[in-house]
Amino acid sequence: MALPILAPVTGRVVAMTDVDDPVFAGELVGPGLAIDPALDEPAEVVSPVDGTVAKLHAHAFVIETADGRGVLVHLGINTVQLGGEGFTLLVAEGDAVGAGQVLVTWDPAAVAAGGRSPVCPVVALDAGPATLTRRAEPGDGVSAGDAFLEWA
Fold this sequence. Notes:
7% of the residues lie in helices and 40% in strands. The protein has an 8-stranded antiparallel sheet, with no helix packed on it. By secondary structure, the chain is mainly beta. The relative contact order is 0.31. A hairpin with a 5-residue loop joins β6 (60-64) and β7. The longest helix is centred in the last third of the chain and has 6 residues, at 108-113.
């Protein structure tokens, strides 16, 4: 059954190959798309799918679906170096979440002002590239909660 994946943040769609990080650009953990977020503050980050919070860090999270698929959302590049500063977590590991539910708030403008990229990769973990269908294309504007990807 196809799994719809929602855009977790509002912004402009970026091809994964254009992400300034070799792991994401090379799709080493899985295929996907990224979003260059609108520089609003604070910005809300929503769950891309229904599931359980399998991993949660201030700058990144993985939601595991009922059928065992994992979707990674990474808030900015090299943001682990911020030690959680500027991120507010609204859920905990193990929580059941619904697609579109706000999970984190953050300030992408502060990330950019600090010299880091605020681009947010959205990755279908361990998926084959042929299993993803884009519902948004690089250059498109998306809002948090919009149709973004579909995982066959």
